[in-house]
UniProtKB/TrEMBL annotation:
Ranges where the record places region Disordered: 43-68
Protein name in the entry: Mitogen-activated protein kinase organizer 1
Domain of life: Eukaryota
Organism annotation: Knufia peltigerae
One Gene Ontology biological process: mRNA splicing, via spliceosome
Length: 342
């Protein structure tokens, strides 16, 4: 790894500010591939589709005129969003206890093409915290709930029953990620476990953590995973042998206080997986740590009012496509700010 990566700072060049939501931001997802668009989900029960960068001069208030599309079928706060690789559909979940599948091109309440779990007694019995596409061609949706189960839904089938129910957890499922091959589902639980399910082999492996697990982000090669816990630490784990490669913040780092003891804070890997980004319960800042050294590389104030930034999402840049890396932070005041590496 080059020295340039080890001295990277938290990108702080503001390119867009989204203010269309009236409730706390709980979910942020960039569109697949180019990442030209961003979907945001809020406690106001709406999902908004916006441009990651404003069409007008970004120096003019650095604010876009409003979302391109709104999706308004949810009756409860929206807690997570997942986008299919072809960008044609996305799934959303929340307090409704159903998985909503949307056609991106359609807005309003008419945009929902399917609802999984609402017409069967085999659906989730409590709020759904997380959702992800999996399987060949994103033909399966995985959802994790406070009812302690992960349920798999067949997008192509008209059968209302889940394909499979993974119910090994002893407490609520807080986060789900799917590895690059599309067949391994990793689920975090409030019971302090991270369970990796190899769906094809019918095998599950379990890693134990010292606190409730609330956040997951997996590396592109699926060899490492970023795990956020309510013991106030974020850990980069080797998935091969279960060892902790690095913990953030390091124990000796008292200069920049970081707190996570009660809220679900969604942290992420950034800048070719050389940085870790996360909000904190104490303020409206997003902090960054260097993956190699574990040391703090600065912070960015996303919410001047001090509202917690509970979700941070990264979109990788591409020299071939001529685009910079971006990250978005969503705060409890309903504002989403997007920053670039430029």
């Amino acid at each position: 790894m080059s020295d340039k990566k080890t001295t990277a700072k938290v990108p702080s060049s503001l390119v867009n500010t989204l203010t269309s939501h009236t409730g706390a931001i709980n979910a942020i997802t960039f569109s697949s591939q180019a990442g030209t668009y961003v979907l945001t989900g809020s406690s106001d029960r709406q999902i908004h589709l916006s441009r990651t960068e404003p069409a007008t001069d970004p120096d003019k208030k650095k604010q876009s005129p409003g979302p391109i599309q709104k999706y308004v079928a949810h009756g409860y706060p929206i807690l997570d969003i997942a986008v299919s690789r072809d960008n044609q559909t996305f799934a959303s979940v929340g307090g409704d206890r159903s998985v909503f599948l949307w056609d991106v091109a359609s807005g309003g309440s008419e945009g929902t093409s399917r609802r999984f779990g609402s017409n069967t007694n085999q659906g989730h019995s409590s709020r759904i915290n997380c959702v992800a596409f999996t399987g060949d061609g994103d033909t399966v949706i995985a959802s994790g709930s406070d009812d302690t189960s992960v349920r798999l839904w067949d997008v192509k089938s008209r059968d209302t029953k889940p394909l499979m129910v993974l119910d090994e957890a002893k407490d609520g499922i807080s986060s789900i990620v799917v590895t690059g091959n599309g067949y391994e589902i990793v689920a975090a639980s409030v019971d302090g476990r991270v369970r990796s399910y190899d769906v094809r082999m019918g095998r599950v492996t379990v890693d134990v953590f010292p606190g409730s697990v609330t956040s997951l982000d997996v590396s592109r090669d699926a060899k490492t995973i970023l795990v956020g816990c309510l013991d106030g630490r974020i850990r980069l784990m080797d998935r091969g042998d279960g060892t902790c490669l690095r913990a953030f913040p390091p124990e000796e780092d008292n200069a920049k206080s970081y707190k996570n003891t009660s809220l679900r804070l969604k942290s992420c890997l950034a800048i070719n997986e050389s940085l870790v980004l996360s909000g904190s319960e104490d303020d409206g800042n997003v902090r960054g740590w260097d993956v190699l050294s574990g040391k703090s590389v600065g912070d960015v104030n996303v919410s001047p009012s001090g509202k917690v930034v509970s979700v941070v999402k990264w979109r990788e840049g591409s020299q071939a496509q001529g685009r910079q890396g971006l990250w978005a932070g969503g705060s409890a005041d309903g504002v989403v700010k997007i920053y670039s590496t430029g």
